[in-house]
Amino acid sequence: MLKLAGVLLALMILFGILGFVVDVAGAITKIAFFVCLIGLGVSLAMKALRNG
Fold it and tell me: Residue 52's closest CA among 37, 44, 38?
């Protein structure tokens, strides 16, 4: 019974760490998306100003 509790505790810690990593990766992905979106907007604006 004690062994089972130890295994479940280890699994709980592992899944907690994995959940944190997934949250951080999601946040980094959102930030990268907005940075790329801003870069696209700036590049299109420069292109429009150069042609105009």
Answer: 44
Query: Using the 8-state DSSP alphabet, how is residue 4 labeled?
Result: H
Q: What is the mean pLDDT of each successive set of 10 residues along the chain, which is 52 residues long?
A: 93 95 95 96 93 74
User: Number of H helices and number of E strands within the chain?
Assistant: 1, 0
- CA-to-CA distance for 45 and 3, rounded, in angstroms? 63
| Residue 5 Rama label (left phi>0; alpha psi -120 to 50; beta) | alpha
| Alpha helices (H) in 1-52, listed in sequence order | 2-51
Is-above-0.85 flag for pTM?
no
